[in-house]
């Protein structure tokens, strides 16, 4: 592959990774848009519906580190393709092989297994971006990749409620299942694993977890997931149950919010490239998340349109830090540990994501939305203190590995196809 072809191919690979991540996100994070239909069909409480919402996330978090280690060892293309195909097949089985009532447990278990396969994309697609893009463009590239979540959620917000109203919530899930299988085929056909820096004989990469820096990145990112999942899991339910919007209108409204969220990720990635930091912008976005959740709490006791405004702003602010956390994790971990470190990053975030819907459902059921929104504001406030801004080196230098030896930026490596 010559330089010009390599330059074009890396963008093609990035956008295939974007499509693959969007397909899994339409399933993983699209189920909240089916909550009103699920509750009506199977007579569930909000807390019980929260368990169904969390099932794919539980499966995802149990396997992220293992998929990351597999990507470190065997490459990204194979890992992503296997995960996508398995997720699509298992969602299809969940739809076709289980029924309502007593079958709900089996349905949730199959969704959890599908989430376990889908996690391969979370770990490995980030590693592809780190391998094909240089440090001074990596934030923007990771921002493009991170738009997959609002894109996938936007697809789910528009399509799943309408399909569920007409055919039932189980049939609606055949859409993300088909998207996963289609993307698996594209990955096998078109994705190329990025070149890896050569390691000298006998050289061993030490663990980046011997200091607290990466753990603080993981911890702050997990705290910032709580307001994100609050909005994604309960926004449609709130708009339908409190101001009494129709499910279709609420879905379109939230799809527009997701588009704005995608744009916010791109802007944030570009911003981090320009200022040479991933973690200083993260701290500023944490303050913004505090403000958004307090605005939502205030709106619920005054005018519900204020909550709608908070949802739109929150759909941008609460997701904008995701790409920064992933990029910082990969750069601090070094090339030999990227897959595993991204797996740990995903795991901590998804633990928070899995716990948020059922626990917050209990808070809303036992108190009200005002108390819940105010409580959620505490988590980004804690993240402000945890983000390790001072420990982050300036990103104009080479991407770090642990130890004395550094790996040059991608643009400076002899194995980069753009320099051949």
Descriptive notes:
By secondary structure, this protein is mainly alpha-helical. Helix content is 76%, strand content 0%.
Overall pLDDT confidence: 80
Radius of gyration: 21 Å
The outline comes out as globular
Structural class: mainly alpha
The amount of beta strand, in percent, is under 5%
Give the H and E element order. Answer: HHHHHHHHHHHHHHHHH
Provide a short characterization of the protein structure.
This protein has helices at 3-28, 35-42, 46-74, 76-97, 104-132, 135-146, 148-167, 169-172, 174-190, 213-241, 247-275, 279-300, 304-317, 322-333, 338-366, 369-376, 378-386. It is an all-alpha fold.
Name its key features.
420 residues; mainly alpha; 17 helices; globular; disordered C terminus
Spell out the blueprint of helices and strands.
Layout lengths: L2 H26 L6 H8 L3 H29 L1 H22 L6 H29 L2 H12 L1 H20 L1 H4 L1 H17 L22 H29 L5 H29 L3 H22 L3 H14 L4 H12 L4 H29 L2 H8 L1 H9 L34
